[in-house]
Amino acid sequence: MLRIAGKNEVKIVRDLLLGEFQNANPEIKQRRISSPGGAVTLDLHWLPQLGLWGHFSDRPYGELGQWNCAFGTSVGSENDTLYASIEINLAVDPADRVIAGRAIKDDTNGYYLGHKGLLGGGRGGQMSMEVFRKYIKGYVPEAIELENGKEEYVFVIGQLGQNGFLQKLKAFVDETERLRAYARTLTAQDPTPKSNSVSQSGGFTAENAQNGTGNGRPYSTIEIKRLHGRVVNALQKKLGQKAINSAYNDMRPDLYIKDTSGHMEILFEVKASSDTQSWFTALGQLLVYGASQPKPPHRILVCPAVRNDPNFRRALQDLNISVITFQESKEGIVFDGIGDLKKKHKFT
Q1: pTM of the predicted model as reported, rounded to 2 decimal places
Q2: Which residues contact 190 (CB under 8 A, 6 or more apart)?
Q3: Can you tell me the distance from the alpha carbon of 167 to that of 163, in angstroms, rounded to the nearest whole number?
Q4: Interatomic CA distance for residues 188 and 207, integer angstroms
Q5: How far, in Å, are 116, 117, 245, 277, 312 from residue 196 at the CA level?
Q6: pLDDT tens for residues 289-331?
Q7: Residue 113 contacts by C-beta under 8 Å, 6 or more apart in sequence?
Q8: Distance (Å, rounded) from C-alpha 345 to C-alpha 348?
Q9: Which residues contact 58 (CB under 8 A, 6 or more apart)?
Q10: Are 153 and 177 contacting, i.e. CB atoms less than 8 angstroms apart?
């Protein structure tokens, strides 16, 4: 599994990113770049053959510290004031997740560049994370493990130091330019519903179920089927309007059904895989999401297959967690066990 790079590795990722441009024989262009404090003249590493420029600060800036990394696709003329298409700044301390860029590594110490997915800036075309993820094309967010063991979903652009990285970065920058232009055409009101810290009336927002580029590993484009999103959407349709995924106590379970008192009666956690890591994560999520309830909800793990590991089977029994399996067919997602669940809880 990909995970966030450590505090002592962030500069390594920044240096590798700068090295990608330096190794491509860039032209150094001085241009005025718009910023919140006014336009500033900066050195841009311009790759005319690719149509991509990058600016990299030589030291961290800001109160908490961030390596500024800005990108665009046109250098204009010497008298122009340019705007960065997107900034993929890297926080000095990876625990600072306000900064949008992500320094990522894998189990073999390969490093990746990521972005949490939003558009900032004060020139128009801003886009929240929810809207960004709704309208982006060709990319899907992937789970990365944080230092505290939790997961965060980010867009992994590509692996640094591997063939094709700059092309992957250019494609991502192009897509953010498209999104920024599209954002200007949207109404001032964010079309995506906001989530309250505690669900009041409840509701369901369909998940992204489109295919898209995955973690950008070299030599091939990995198509990640948005199986998780399709399963959640299909399960909600199968269970009916009582099944919702509104935020609850600052968390957002995959699906849950409330009783007449407004408490969780049934809690679902969907995993697209039945591998060991997925089950470890799912059991923990089911426990935490339902921990605040006066009466423990019926916890259900939804996954492709039941594991036969004795320890997992004992854990399911001890924690009173049920399993519903699914299969993806030409007709869509097919579940095994929904009928028994509806009969037990007497809902349609």
Answers
A1: 0.58
A2: 128, 130, 131
A3: 9
A4: 23
A5: 21, 21, 12, 30, 34
A6: 999 889 999 999 999 888 877 888 899 999 999 999 998 888 8
A7: 13, 17, 88, 101, 102, 103, 104, 156, 157, 158, 160, 169
A8: 9
A9: none
A10: no
